[in-house]
Amino acid sequence: MPTKSGKPDRTQAWRVMMDRYDFFGILAKTESLDESSDEGAWLYRGKALEALCRIEQAAIVYAAGLQFFPDSMQLHLALGQLEIQRGRLRQALKLLRRGCDLEPNNLNCYTARLNLESLDPDGPEAARMLVRALDGRKSAASRARALFFLGQIHVEAKRDRIGFAYYQAGNALAAKSIDPSRREYPLPKHLLRLSSADFENGDPNVPECKAIVVAGMPRSGKTMVESMLSEHPAIFPAGEYAGLRRALVKLDKKRLFGDLKNLASSGRSPFAEAYAKHPLTGEGGHWLVDSSPANLTRLGYFGFLHPDTPVVMCRRRALDLGVSLYFKKFKSGHGYTYGLESIGRAIALTERLIDHWCSVLPNPVLVVDYEDLVSDPGGARSALFAHLGLEAPARVEQKSTEEDWRIFPSRSPGPGTPISPALIGFSDRFEAELAPMISAYRQMKARLLD
Question: Phi and psi dihedrals of 338, rounded to 5?
Fold first, then answer.
């Protein structure tokens, strides 16, 4: 499909390159942008720069792109989200509002706006999304996103019962499109049978792995930990890179320890190789923070080859974690989050797994509780850097205030976001609705004790 410039739309090609972490490839192909370049080239050059933590350069690219494409919702959204990171919240809100005006039926800008301002549950935005949620011609994922949006704006308006009903409908719709076998948390049973003795024959004589592995469930504080650690000049955020999963994907699942031992005997580590492929590692040998939820079930294999590498484990009060998961529409995966009972079982299983890793892993492990992280961020920050054997850098002053940035369970506080304890105990508002989750959680906890 051609763009305004008459050139074919390369959006899908840019997305593929982003998914492959080919950020430098994108920069090379978009080095000479001008008025004849298409909108996607400006957008994805900015995204590539963001991924390489070149935030100021990315902002310049987005702003320049808007000079040629002033009616681009995508560029308004990208720059608006970036301005939030830079602490320029008024400018961010202006951009996001404009993006919503340009494409009133696109949910992405509305979702971003909710970081900064509430929306009227009786307003036109809610009406549009209700029409979308009821439109049987739309995909289940699209309709579910609209229902989650309606749930959020009603809960934020203190209409808890109505809001929760929207969330129930959204979760039920999302669950229908997921294979039943993927609606439970995937915890291989053999992991809980591993003991300290299983790590005694590990071979540490492998290349250094430039990763700081942060493990835990989604919504447990991993993003805040990553943000804190990334204040250090030698540490860069890799987000949910899932380096542990990437390292193991080509190995035989039935004999992973054997394969890892064989690789180590030849001086190789698939983990070191996986992180070495990330573009940020190659830029000066920086350490990467990997906060993927996939890390939690793969820590044993990592510890077998890299027993001296520190690991950070994130936990959170079960009820607050559960409601945060239930209120979040994930882009992919996490099928267990669309049912209250499966969420309860998943939390019990991961709590057991975290305790297990703390007792058997050879790695230095620091457990960070969400409640401590948000109540005493200074203390948590000091503990994190001490755990890594690093001197904590000077603190970065937040430019925004708690009143500027709105807190909600389904959002991950990122760069530019003040840390607040406001969500501790948030689940108390939904104690009756969460009864199935609580019951399933307690039953699984009891089973795990047998």
Answer: -100, 15
